[in-house]
Amino acid sequence: MSTYTYTKDWKVEDILEKAKELEGKSLGEIDLSNWLMKGGNKGRVGNMIQSDFFGIEPNSDREADFKHHGIELKVTPVKRKRKDGFSSKERLVLGMINYNEDYKLAFENSIPNKKTKNTLLIFYLHEENQPVNTFKILKTILFKLPESDLPQVKVDYENILMMIREGRAHELSEKQQKFMSACTKGQGKGKDWVKQPFSKELAKSRAYSYKVGYMSAYFRTIMTPNEIEKICFPKELSFEENVELTFNKYIGKTAEDIAKSINYSGSLKDKSYLAKITNKLFGDHTKTNVNNTEEFQKNGYAIKIVTDRFYASKNQDMSFQNLDFTEIQFEKFEDSSWYGLFAETKYIVAVWKEYEENKYRLLRYIYWTPDQYFISQAEKIYNHIQNMLLEDKIVITKDRSWTDNLPKKNCIKPFQIRPKGTKQNSCVTLPNGQVIKKKTFYIDKEYIRNIVGL
């Protein structure tokens, strides 16, 4: 049973028109065969739309989903940020890298080139800690790579091939490319090591994919084009050169002097004062922070803040995003937003020094790229929480402090799980129906301080 039955008699226009009908529908409305109940199946949403809406039986064939028209179907989630519009939740995987064959192919004949000309993209809104069947489809579109991005995608592709030709496929990582990366992709459990042609070293199986930051920038161009914010860096300089030029003007200056020079009138009583003033170094971004500008997203960078407090006891751990228990229960680490945060993203850490109580100076900035040990530890704590969810082992004691048995400090270093800020009474519902306080994951302050040399 399906809404439509795709045949060779359809035209491309028919595919696009019918896809447009999906916009505004919840996933539950489309799910005629209970695909969404198949927990742990990463492709269940795509398979559901493919079979229950378009009437195409899911299969493992290498041919296109809309085989008579050579069009692939890709379903990808986005998130709505509280203040900053939309962002992609995960990378867009295009297809597996064949180490033994792809190095012979020019870009024009490559998987990335073919897939970005013949792919129907369906974007749906992933809502934190909500049931999957309530997620709504926001946009359907035939993907077209912007001409301005094509040169960089070609460079990324050639960089991947160069490493294969040099017998270094085992050294590939997501951070080596800008827009399109060689992401890890496989079955897990030690089955993802394959042969490469110019080395005896086994390499991890990988796929071509557009990075999370790139997909965030792309989605904004089609969904909210009037809200796109840019820094407008001088084009003759690289992204990194522009960042360094910006920061170097303010190194050693006090927050007070910097605020005056950039006409920033924020209050020191604001807990995010230093983060906001750091953002303002790059321009007056009134609707978003600098990490959500097109330049930072496409180049795969984000700014974080570390403050060396006057009283050492006040130094803080570094916070990241809230735990999305729906995501953790149903998705593998490599398909999660955590993976994008650490395997794909590089960080510029601005270090502030509190030289007198409530008086700050911009000490320095460093580039930080999470290493493989760090990513492995992130995967370890993610999988630990996932197993707790799947085995129904999260224990919540609803006393005055609402305690639970999620990983605390020193359980899986350098991470810890705890509530964030003062709104600790706000709660979310776990997939099994239990109510728990919102949780955030942190990196231990000792680990971060060591990274920035404090």
Query: How many strand segments?
Result: 19
Main sheet record: 4 strands, mixed
Low-confidence stretches: none
What's the multimeric state? single chain
* Strand numbers in spatial order across the main sheet: 2-1-4-5
Proportion of helical residues: 25-40%
Mean pLDDT: 90
How many helices? 14
Could you give the distance between the termini?
Answer: 62 Å
Tell me the radius of gyration: 23 Å
Basic shape:
globular
- Class by SSE composition: alpha+beta
Q: Tell me what portion of residues adopts beta-strand conformation.
A: 15-25%
Helix/strand layout:
Layout lengths: L11 H9 L6 H4 L13 H10 L18 E10 L3 E4 L3 E5 L14 H5 L3 E7 L11 E6 L7 H16 L14 E5 L8 E4 L2 E6 L1 E5 L1 H12 L15 H10 L6 H7 L11 H8 L13 H6 L1 E8 L9 E5 L2 H6 L6 H8 L1 E11 L2 E10 L3 H19 L5 E2 L5 E2 L10 E4 L8 E3 L5 E3 L2 E4 L1 H8 L2
Parallel strand pairs: 1-4, 10-12
Antiparallel strand pairs: 1-2, 3-9, 4-5, 6-9, 7-8, 11-19, 12-13, 14-15, 16-19, 17-18
Helix pairs in contact: 12-13
Give keywords.
14 helices; alpha+beta; four-stranded mixed beta sheet; single chain; three-stranded antiparallel beta sheet; 28% helix; 454 residues; globular
Characterise this structure:
The chain is of the alpha+beta class and 454 residues long. 28% of the residues lie in helices and 23% in strands. It contains 14 helices and 19 strands. The protein has a four-stranded mixed sheet, with helices on both faces. The longest helix has 19 residues, at 372-390. The protein is globular and about 75 Å long.
